[in-house]
Design goal:
- The complex is a heterodimer of chains A (216) and B (280).
- With 216 residues, chain A is an alpha+beta fold.
- Chain A contains 4 helices and 3 strands.
- Chain A has a 3-stranded mixed β-sheet with strand order 1-2-3.
- In chain A, helix 2 packs across helix 3.
- The termini of chain A are far apart.
- Chain B has 280 residues and is of the alpha+beta class.
- Chain B is 32% helix and 24% strand.
- Chain B is globular, with a radius of gyration of 19 Å.
- The relative contact order of chain B is 0.12.
- Classes of the chains: A alpha+beta (216), B alpha+beta (280).
- Chains A and B meet through helix 4 of A and helix 10 of B.
C-alpha cells in the first residue's frame, strides 16, 4: 500500500481500517537555521543565536544646565532585520525597543536599600518612559536578507534597546562636553547628569588654567 | 495589581460611624479615590479599609463664612471645574497632577494630604494657600492649619481614630498672582522639588516642598523686577531657601544634596511663572 493511500485511509477511517489495530501514523520534520553551533570550536566559541538584527541610531538631547534634566528632542533609527514579513510588526517592535533603550539610558533603575530591600517597587519609583518622555521616533528599514534562514529573516527589535541607549548617552556626553572614554553609570538621572556638568566645568577650568599658563 | 486576600471593607454613612470604625481598628486605611490605598493594599493585604466616599457632603465644594470648604473627597478634576479665585493655585496644581484623567478624576487632595508623601504637590500647595484642615475624631471636630498638619514624612497631625473631613481655604485671596513649578525626573516620577510663588507687586512669598521633608514657607522677599530676575535676585532666593532648618528630603529618585541645589532653581521658575501671569 502506498504511504499516501495509507495516510488517506487513516485520516478518513481512523481505527476502522480493516486489519490494523491502533492507527499510529506520525511524520516529523524539523527546521533549524544552519548557523547555530552549540559545540564549541577550537577556541571555545559557540554561536547561540542564528541571526542578528542591525540598527543605527541618532539621538538629540537638550539638557537643563541648572537641574541636569534631559529632554529628548529627537530619535532616529534605521533598522535591518532582513526580509520584512510584517512591516507594521517590525516597526512596532523597533519602537518598543527604542522606548526600552530610553528607559535604560535615562530613568530605569533597580535600586536597593542597605538591607537589600528593593526600593523601586512601583512605577512611580521604577520609571518607565511615558509618552511625554518620548519624541516622535523617525525610523527606516533596510532589508539585507540573511543567508542562514529560510526566508532571509533576522531577529527584529532587540537591537533597538542597546542602540538607542548608546545614542542617547553619546548625545549627553557631547552636550555636556565630556570625553567619550569615561564609563558612565546609567541611568543618567538628573542628579548624575548634574554631576557630569560639574565635572565638565571643573575640567574646562583646569584646561583654561593650563592654557593661560602655557601662553603667559 | 493583585490583592490576594479578602479585605474588610467598610463604607460608613456618617462621620460618627467612620470615627468609631477607625477607633476600633486604628490600623485601618482610610480610602476615597483609592489611588494611593490600592497600591498599599497590594502589599499590606491585611489592612481593613474604610471608604469615606459615602459620607454626606464629603465630595462637595461649598462656601462657609467666606472660606471655600473642600470636602476631603474632592478630586483634582472637581477643583479644575471650579472658577473660584480662592482656588487659583490649587487649580494650577491639579492640572499638573501626573497620571492623566484617570488619576485626576479619582485622586483627592485630602487623600494626598493625609498620605503626606514629601515628594508630592498637595502639602506645599495647601501650605501656600493658607489652608486649614478640618479633622473629625472621637472628641469632635478640630481645625489645624496646614503649617501644623504636615509634621514629618508620611506623618500628619491626625491622631489615632481621627480622619480628615475637609480643607478650608480663604475665599477671597490676597491680591497678586500665583506661580507654580515642579521638577520631575521623568513624566511619571514623584516631584523632586516644587515651589509655589505668590507675587504681589515686588513682594514674593515662596513655599517650597518635595525637596524638604515637609513644606516650608519662606519669609516674603522684595525683588526689584520679578519678571526679570538678576543673578543677585536669584542668589537672594537661594540664600533664603538655604536658611530653612527643615531637613532635605531624599528618596529613590534624588538625593538630598541634589534637592537642596535645585530647590532654588525651582523657586525662581515659580516666581517667573507668577510674573508671567501678572502681565498676560
Amino acid at each position: 500500500m502506498p504511504l499516501a493511500a495509507l495516510a488517506l485511509a487513516f485520516r478518513s477511517l481512523g481505527g476502522a481500517v480493516p486489519g490494523i489495530g491502533v492507527p499510529e501514523l506520525e511524520a516529523t520534520r524539523t527546521y533549524g537555521p544552519d548557523n547555530m553551533h552549540s559545540i564549541p570550536d577550537e577556541t571555545g566559541r559557540i554561536q547561540g543565536y542564528p541571526t542578528y538584527a542591525y540598527s543605527v541610531h541618532v539621538a538629540g538631547v537638550e539638557i537643563e544646565l541648572d537641574t541636569g534634566v534631559v529632554h529628548l528632542r529627537s530619535l532616529a533609527a534605521v533598522h535591518d532585520c532582513g526580509t520584512l514579513i510584517t512591516p507594521d510588526l517590525a516597526e512596532a517592535q523597533l519602537h518598543g525597543a527604542i522606548a526600552m533603550g530610553v528607559g535604560v539610558a535615562l530613568t530605569e533603575e533597580e535600586s536597593y536599600g542597605p538591607d537589600g530591600r528593593p526600593l523601586a517597587v512601583d512605577f512611580k519609583r521604577y520609571l518607565l518612559p511615558r509618552i511625554k518622555d518620548l519624541p516622535r521616533i523617525a525610523t527606516g528599514h533596510l532589508q539585507s536578507p540573511s543567508p542562514f534562514t529560510a526566508m532571509g529573516t533576522k531577529g527584529a527589535g532587540e537591537s533597538g534597546v542597546g542602540g538607542a541607549a548608546a545614542a542617547i548617552v553619546g548625545a549627553i556626553r557631547d552636550a555636556v562636553g565630556i570625553g567619550g572614554t569615561t564609563a558612565l553609570r546609567t541611568p543618567l538621572t538628573p542628579p548624575r547628569v548634574l554631576e557630569l556638568i560639574d565635572s565638565a566645568r571643573a575640567g574646562n577650568r583646569q584646561a583654561a588654567a593650563a592654557l593661560s599658563r602655557s601662553t603667559s | 495589581m493583585t490583592i490576594a486576600t479578602a479585605t474588610q471593607f467598610h463604607v460608613p454613612s456618617t462621620v460618627d460611624e467612620a470615627v468609631r470604625l477607625l477607633r476600633d481598628d486604628p490600623t485601618s486605611l482610610v480610602a476615597c479615590g483609592g489611588t494611593l490605598v490600592m497600591p498599599l493594599l497590594a502589599r499590606n493585604p491585611d489592612s481593613a479599609v474604610i471608604d469615606i466616599s459615602a459620607l454626606p457632603g464629603i465630595a462637595s465644594i461649598t462656601t462657609v463664612d467666606g472660606d471655600i470648604q473642600l470636602g476631603a473627597a474632592v478630586t483634582y478634576s472637581a477643583v479644575l471645574h471650579r472658577t473660584d479665585a480662592g482656588l487659583t493655585l490649587l487649580r494650577t496644581v491639579a492640572r499638573g497632577i501626573t497620571g492623566g484623567p484617570q488619576i485626576r478624576n479619582q485622586g483627592t487632595l485630602g487623600g494626598s494630604a493625609c498620605y503626606a508623601n514629601p515628594a508630592s504637590d498637595v502639602p506645599t500647595a495647601l501650605l501656600a494657600a493658607d489652608a486649614t484642615m478640618t479633622i473629625a475624631g472621637p472628641t469632635g471636630t478640630r481645625a489645624v492649619p496646614a503649617a501644623e498638619f504636615f509634621r514629618a514624612p508620611y506623618a500628619t497631625a491626625l491622631k489615632p481614630g481621627e480622619l480628615l473631613v475637609g480643607i478650608r481655604v480663604p475665599g477671597t485671596p490676597a491680591a497678586g498672582t500665583w506661580g507654580y513649578h515642579k521638577l520631575l525626573t521623568a513624566a511619571g516620577s514623584w516631584p523632586i522639588a516644587v515651589a509655589a510663588a505668590h507675587l504681589d507687586g515686588n513682594t514674593v512669598t515662596i513655599t517650597v516642598g518635595a525637596a524638604t521633608e515637609t513644606p516650608v514657607r519662606l519669609p516674603p522677599l522684595d525683588l526689584p523686577d520679578p519678571a526679570h530676575l538678576s543673578a543677585t535676585d536669584k542668589a537672594a532666593v537661594a540664600a533664603s531657601i538655604k536658611q530653612t532648618d527643615v531637613p532635605w528630603w531624599h528618596d529613590e529618585l534624588a538625593h538630598a544634596a541634589y534637592r537642596r541645589r535645585v530647590a532654588a532653581v525651582v523657586a525662581v521658575r515659580a516666581i517667573t511663572d507668577a510674573a508671567r501671569r501678572h502681565n498676560p
